[in-house]
Amino acid sequence: MVNHELDTPTPKMDWHILIFLFLLAWAVRFIGLDWGYFHGDERVNQAAKVLAGQLVPDQHFYPPLMHYIAAVLYGGLYVVGNILDWWPNTGAFRAQYFEDPTIFYLTARALTGAIAALMTPLFYRIGRVLAFGKIESFVIAAFAGLAPISVLLSYIFKGDLGVATATVWIILLMIRKTQSPGLLRLDYLIGVGVCLALSFKHSAILLLVPFAITFVIVVGSKHDLKSGLSALTRIVGTTLLLWPFLNIGILLDLEGFIRFQQIQKVMSVSENGNIVDAVAKMVQTAASWHIGQGILMPIAFLLFPVLASRIEQRAMLLGIWAATVAALLLLAAIVGLRQPEQLWIAHFMVMQLFATISLICIFRRSSTVGAVIIAAALAISLFGDISIWRQALAQPISHDLADRIEMNYPERKIAVNIALPLQKSPASMDFEAERVQRIADKYGVTMPEQAEERIEHANNRKSYDYVGLPMVMYGLENSTDEELNGKVEPFAWPPQAEDWQLQTWLDQGFSMFMIQDLDSWLFHDAAPVMKPLFVELSERCEEIEVVPARKPLFLERDVTILDCDGA
């Protein structure tokens, strides 16, 4: 039986401060929200399909919860737009998507930013629960609001930040559980948090399992193992109860979900490199002031057991710290050198929390030293944020490339591997559609139906004869038919050798190429099927110009313009 007399009172909720911190953190994530491109992982079309009643996603690489939430926002967007006479009916609302989908992307990104901004008041609340003062807790919150990786990923509509926010909430509840073991509702709330994390991204399980072990050990040590296991049972039960409602699209298509997980397994095969190399790359990312936390925060995180020796709830915090270290090493061992920055967001935000607590502990021991280190760490974060905002606000080079096509090459047939703000000609759209259908027929895959509005829209605007190089999903560049035998889904297929030969393109009348990141492709050993095209382009075609990237943090790279007329 739990002794309720052990319950520890916590500071009252400073709702006005919490709301202010959330709004402030959300506001800075609006800077440059329309950064000029649509990210390939932003599945806003899927959210729109939810409004039309399609609960099963076209792809199961991510859980559908973000699509469901965005669909609710799109419903609100329609109501607001209807009141303001932006669109008089649902038909006009639908037409807006095909005319210019920017407003849908911005709405979805604002959702991502709001989810990220929630971590700021959560950091503050954790500080207060740990008996830090309001000013100290405000400083802790500032590191959440200004964490560069959190700011950067807020510009992309994906569920990664949802995992981070849910994880921080779970940590708050785990701390509260050690303070008030008699509050059974904390177990159910943790279950809600776990369910949310798993509904934002399946791989959250790799962080949550070490947390669960810590929870049982710490709660059990304060009472008995039975108490810890009973609390864990309530958490798991709550998760299992809620999960089907947040992931109904998976349950309605379990067979498809399993196929996509098999594809995901191929995509997630680690690149060359041992555990030491993988950890070194992870540390390098963490220390980055653009896509990580800056050099001081990882150090402060590692020193937490020493610096926070007198902190309240030390047992639970040390357990969570150790669980985070274990989860970092586990994930590094699994992925090797294939480490996109969003992979680490939940882990890095936990690191940010513990690092900030370490800095406050230094401040309490020596206000002068602590203030200097805190100011330096915040300055590094702010410098990273300013760099992100400057790139977000910069004009994309795609506009420069579009101008060159309009002025210098309006009659040429051009192949590109960067999105351009130019309307493709109907012939170019047919070319791309036939290429996709050819590959789909090869694998016996049924493609989603293309909306008629997209085709009609192309016929009503000035257009140009340019096409995109075949899309190959990240992680499948080196895949083969044998690896994906029986697992192929729309667009989730291996690169086709015939599409990556220069002569194939020349025979179809393409004489100009605009290639993003050509140098990297020339030395990209992970894509042997694709590499011949880039080698032939560099050897047989004339380099006209290299347009330098302005937004490398947003995956924009230098673009090489090549003239292959006569090659």
Q: Features of this protein?
A:
single chain, mainly alpha, five-stranded mixed β-sheet, 26 helices, disordered N terminus
Work out the radius of gyration. 25 Å
Our estimate of the beta-strand percent is under 5%
Structure annotation, total helices:
26
- The helix/strand class is mainly alpha
Stretches with pLDDT under 50, minimum 5 residues: 1-6
Helix content: 55-70%
Major β-sheet profile: 5 strands, mixed
Strand adjacency order, main sheet: 2-1-3-5-4
Identify the overall geometry: globular
Distance between the termini: 82 Å
Please count the beta strands (DSSP E, at least 2 residues each): 5
Average of the residue pLDDT scores = 91
Write the layout of secondary structure elements.
Blueprint: H1 15-28, H2 44-51, H3 65-83, H4 90-99, H5 102-117, H6 119-129, H7 134-145, H8 148-153, H9 160-179, H10 185-200, H11 205-222, H12 225-246, H13 248-251, H14 254-267, H15 275-287, H16 296-302, H17 304-307, H18 314-335, H19 345-365, H20 367-393, H21 397-408, E1 414-416, H22 426-443, H23 452-459, E2 466-468, H24 502-507, E3 512-516, H25 518-522, H26 531-540, E4 542-547, E5 559-563
Parallel strand pairs: 1-2, 1-3
Antiparallel strand pairs: 3-5, 4-5
Provide a concise account of the structure shown.
Helices cover 60% and strands 4% of the residues. The protein has helices at 15-28, 44-51, 65-83, 90-99, 102-117, 119-129, 134-145, 148-153, 160-179, 185-200, 205-222, 225-246, 248-251, 254-267, 275-287, 296-302, 304-307, 314-335, 345-365, 367-393, 397-408, 426-443, 452-459, 502-507, 518-522, 531-540, and strands at residues 414-416, 466-468, 512-516, 542-547, 559-563.
